[in-house]
Write a structure and sequence with these properties.
Number of strands: 17
Distance between the termini: 49 Å
CATH architecture of the largest domain: Sandwich
Helix content: under 10%
Number of helices: 2
Order of helices and strands: EEHEEEEEHEEEEEEEEEE
Number of domains: 2
């Protein structure tokens, strides 16, 4: 639980459910101010969706006994209710909610955190009002990442930690490929966007991107491939699609974007990096930007 208001836990008072309405909080003789328990999920990777599984308990079915669940909007200014206790329900109930459409109600835009909040209310006759609450909660989050974005091992001491909360014994094998290089330097990032130029507005939705050739510091090494990505994010931290985070498969400093990915009157960001003839990838170029016109085709 990342934060809570007017709630108590089993660890604090030994009363179940695990999270419940805090007693001695009457207002006008009724527990009419909702108790709130919030759970925040945060990750360095783009969140694509997920699901909520919880077991809740409702002590009575009066208007003062209620359980509701909501998700904070991406801008953090409003909440969307995703579940509420049905009328006539008393006792325990399993709740499962698909978060995919809740996190992205107007289409795909990557986010890296979200917050689920439980609002609990209890009838005054249940004093102490501890019969309404949350018995268990599980948040499953789907993320998007690429092998190239994961941490690499470096010279010296490295610690790799594995964690698994499932019960029972198991065997785990972690394999990390290590390639020693002493006389090789990676290609330098491409310095310039040729087309679209950085900040340019274009009138086509399937352009052929081109950039200045990546230079390799090692004599005799050639550039054999490029890695390309395009994003809505100014830092290109996530692609429009995983399909658009991939090698071009060519030594040419250009790549044609297929139709169907770009929208009119929108701003995009892209970057590239090169690979040399020894199979070493260089660093990414700085992100370049361009905009499609309202009449682009």
């Amino acid at each position: 639980m990342s934060r809570g208001t007017y709630v108590s836990t089993y660890a604090e008072d030994g009363v179940k459910p695990s999270i419940h309405v805090k007693e001695n909080r009457k207002h006008g003789g009724v527990y009419d101010i909702p108790s709130r328990a919030a759970f925040r999920v945060k990750t360095p990777y783009s969140i694509l969706g997920g699901r909520l599984n919880a077991q809740v308990y409702r002590g009575d079915q009066t208007q003062w006994d209620n359980i509701a669940i909501s998700v904070l909007s991406r801008r953090g200014t409003e909440r969307t209710k995703i579940w509420e206790a049905p009328k006539g329900f008393i006792g325990s109930m399993d709740v499962e909610v698909d978060l995919n459409e809740v996190l992205y109600p107007s289409g795909f835009r990557a986010r890296r955190d979200y917050e689920v909040m439980f609002e609990l209310m209890a009838n005054e006759k249940n004093d102490p009002a501890t019969e309404t609450g949350v018995e268990s909660i599980q948040l499953t989050t789907d993320i998007q990442c690429a092998p190239n974005s994961l941490p690499a091992l470096s010279l010296g001491k490295n610690v790799v930690r594995y964690r698994d909360d499932t019960p029972g014994t198991r065997k785990i094998k972690i394999t990390h490929v290590w390639r020693e290089r002493y006389d090789d330097h990676p290609p330098l990032p491409p310095e310039r966007a040729v087309y679209p130029e950085d900040g340019q507005t274009i009138s086509e939705l399937a352009p052929t991107f081109s950039w200045s050739v990546a230079q390799d510091p090692d004599k005799g090494d050639d550039i054999t491939d490029y890695y390309f990505t395009i994003s809505f994010d100014p830092e290109c931290r996530w692609p429009i699609s995983t399909t658009l985070l991939a090698p071009t498969g060519s030594e040419l400093a250009q790549w044609k974007l297929p139709k169907g990915w770009l929208n009119r009157d929108a701003t995009y960001y892209w970057k590239v990096k090169g690979k040399d003839s020894r199979g070493i990838w260089g660093e990414w170029s700085k992100p370049f930007s361009f905009r499609t016109s309202a009449a682009a085709e």
